[in-house]
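User: Could you go from structure to sequence for me? I need the amino acid at each position, not a summary. C-alpha cells:
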C-alpha cells in the first residue's frame, strides 16, 4: 500500500488474544503516531516507509509503528510525550498529540515508548494488557442501560435553560450534578473535585467545547473518555470532523431528556458490564 509517497508495510499477527479497550481512543492513538511519522518522513525526504506490526508480548499485545524518517534527537526524545512539546512551526502542531496518546494508553493500563536513531528513523511501541472478561458473545442488540451507581456529573452549557434542564434530568436519576456556563468555569470545577462524567456543549463563546476537550484530554485523561457532547442541530463540517476524530458520543439539540439520560448512563456503566450480561458462565 502506498499513501502520498509513503510505502506502508504491515505485519499483523493472526491470532492475537482479545482484550478490552476503547476502540475510538485506540484509533486516535494510532492515528496520532502515524500522522507524526508521515509528517516527519515527508518533511525530511518527501517519501518513506512506514511499518506497522502487531504481536503477542509478555504483558499482552504489542503494536509497533516504525518509520525511516529523520529520527528524534536524544534531548527531544525525552520531551515528546510532554504536553505542548512540538518542533513544528506555529499553527502546524499543538504538541498535544503524543501527550494525549500517553494519557489514553496509561488509562488502558498499557505503555507507549519511543526509540529513535537520528538519521535512521523512529519506532513507537505500544503495549496493551490483556483484560479479563473479554470473551464477549456476538454482539447482542443494543441493551438497555443498567441502573448506574450515582455519579458526579459536570454539565457545561452557556444557555441557562438547557443547563438546568439537563441538571434536573440527571438529578432525578440520583446523580450529583454541577453546572458551568463556560469552558473556563468548567476547568475550575474540574480542578476542584473529581467527576465521573462531563457533558459539554460544543458551541460556546470564548472557549469552545473543542478547546475545553483538548484541555480535559491533557489534564483529566480519564474524564476525556467519559465525555458526552451536545451540539446545535446545524453542525459545521469542522465540528463534524472533530466529532469523528475524537469518537465521543454526542447529542444533537433539541434532544430528548431520555436520550441524555440513556447516553450518560451508557458511558457511566462499568465497561465490563455488557460482557457479563452476554457471557454464559
Ligand atoms: N515519527 C516521528 N519522527 C520524528 N519526530 C517525531 C515523530 N513523532 C513525534 N515526533 C516529534 O515529537 C513532537 C511531539 O509530537 P506530538 O504529536 O505530541 O505533537 P505535534 O505532532 O508536534 O503536534 P500535534 O500532534 O498537535 O499536531 C513532534 O513535534 C516531533 O518533533
Ligand atoms: Mg502529532
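Assistant: Here is the amino acid at each position, in order:
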Amino acid at each position: 500500500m502506498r499513501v502520498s509517497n509513503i510505502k506502508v508495510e504491515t505485519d499483523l499477527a493472526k491470532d492475537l488474544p482479545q482484550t478490552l479497550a476503547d476502540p475510538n481512543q485506540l484509533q486516535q492513538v494510532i492515528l496520532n503516531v502515524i500522522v507524526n511519522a508521515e509528517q516527519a518522513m515527508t518533511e525530511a525526504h518527501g517519501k518513506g516507509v512506514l511499518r506497522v506490526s502487531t504481536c503477542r508480548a509478555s504483558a499482552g499485545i504489542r503494536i509497533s509503528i516504525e518509520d525511516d524518517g529523520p529520527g528524534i534527537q536524544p534531548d527531544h526524545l525525552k520531551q515528546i510525550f510532554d504536553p505542548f512539546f512540538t518542533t513544528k512551526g506555529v499553527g502546524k502542531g499543538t504538541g498535544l498529540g503524543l501527550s494525549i496518546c500517553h494519557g489514553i494508553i496509561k488509562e488502558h493500563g498499557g505503555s507507549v515508548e519511543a526509540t529513535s536513531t537520528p538519521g535512521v528513523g523512529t519506532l513507537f511501541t505500544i503495549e496493551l494488557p490483556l483484560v479479563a472478561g473479554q470473551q464477549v458473545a456476538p454482539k447482542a442488540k443494543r441493551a438497555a442501560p443498567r441502573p448506574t451507581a450515582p455519579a458526579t456529573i459536570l454539565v457545561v452549557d452557556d444557555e441557562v435553560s438547557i443547563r438546568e434542564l439537563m441538571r434536573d434530568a440527571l438529578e432525578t436519576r440520583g446523580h450529583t450534578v454541577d453546572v458551568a456556563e463556560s469552558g473556563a468555569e468548567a476547568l475550575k470545577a474540574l480542578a476542584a473535585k473529581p467527576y465521573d462524567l462531563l457533558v459539554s456543549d460544543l458551541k460556546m463563546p470564548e472557549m469552545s467545547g473543542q478547546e475545553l476537550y483538548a484541555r480535559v484530554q491533557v489534564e483529566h485523561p480519564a474524564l476525556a473518555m467519559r465525555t458526552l457532547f451536545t451540539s446545535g442541530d446545524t453542525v459545521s463540517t469542522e465540528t463534524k470532523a472533530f466529532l469523528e476524530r475524537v469518537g465521543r458520543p454526542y447529542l444533537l439539540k433539541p434532544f430528548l431528556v431520555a436520550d441524555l439520560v440513556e447516553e450518560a448512563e451508557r458511558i457511566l456503566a462499568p465497561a465490563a458490564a455488557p460482557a457479563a450480561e452476554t457471557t454464559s458462565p
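One structural detail worth keeping in mind: The radius of gyration is 21 Å.
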